[in-house]
Amino acid sequence: MIHTVITEIHLPAGVAGPDPMDFDVRCFLIPHATGLTLVDTGLEHTVPSITGQLTAIGAGWGDVTDVVLTHHHPDHTGGLPEVLTLAPGATVWAGSGDTFPVAAKPAEDGTTIRGLRVVATPGHTAGHLSLLATDNAALLIGDLAGTQGGRLVRAPAAFTADATEAERSLHKASRLTFATLYPSHGAPTDPQALHELLDRP
Asked: Which single residue of 2, 8, 142, 176 could bond 70 by disulfide (Cβ 3.0 to 4.6 Å)?
């Protein structure tokens, strides 16, 4: 079971382009045999929502054994300092191509962290990674793509470091076997949505 924590964000006009922007950012709590893994930490004000989700599933911060960061952008790492205060024993994992405010163990392509297989998917950032949750038949893709208006779309060009590399990573993800796709922005979708995205320029 993957438990999702959603934070709604509003950016005024001029912050990320000429128009105002409304979107959500999602982080995920994934149970394993001896606790929970937190994938991304959201923004600073996301942490109380994570606490609420932990309470809702009968857990607490002491159950969080690992924090896996998909990439270094602040909407995915803003809550990290407070998370580590609340769960000081948690191990932080991240792609070695990105830089973080705390020490993170390298999450290398093909390795497994608490049942989550690391899939290196650079492009959005140099160290961007996705996670294949085999027990849940799910692929967590960070900002490799997101759902908007009911369909899967590429990450905004303004926030993507290398569009060519990101496209290669999308194709890599499309070759994996999973039933549900969990982007960090927007609702979950299915593998077909990823194939349809790749058919669009």
From this structure: 142
Output the pLDDT for position 15: 60
Contact between residue 27 and residue 3 where contact means Cβ atoms under 8 Å apart? no
pLDDT digit string, tens, across residues 130-151:
999 988 899 999 999 999 888 9
pTM for the full predicted model? 0.92
Low-confidence ranges of the chain (pLDDT < 70): 11, 14-17
Task: Please state, in angstroms and rounded to a whole number, the distance separating the CA atoms of residues 111 and 68.
Answer: 13
DSSP string of 61-123, one letter each residue = GGGEEEEEES---HHHHTTHHHHHHHSTTPEEEE-TTS--SS--EE--TT-EETTEEEEE-TT
CB 173 within 8 A of CB 141: yes
Q: Domain limits of the chain?
A: 3-198
- Distances from the Cα of 169 to the Cα of 40, 132, 154, 189, angstroms: 19, 14, 11, 18
pLDDT score for 18? 72
Confirm if 144 and 130 have CB atoms less than 8 A apart.
yes
Looking at domain 3-198, does it have CATH number 3.60.15.10?
yes
What φ, ψ does residue 99 adopt, rounded to 5°?
Answer: -115, 135
Which residues, other chains included, contact 154 with Cβ-Cβ below 8 Å and sequence gap of 6+?
145, 160, 166, 170, 197
Number of H helices, E strands in the chain: 5, 13
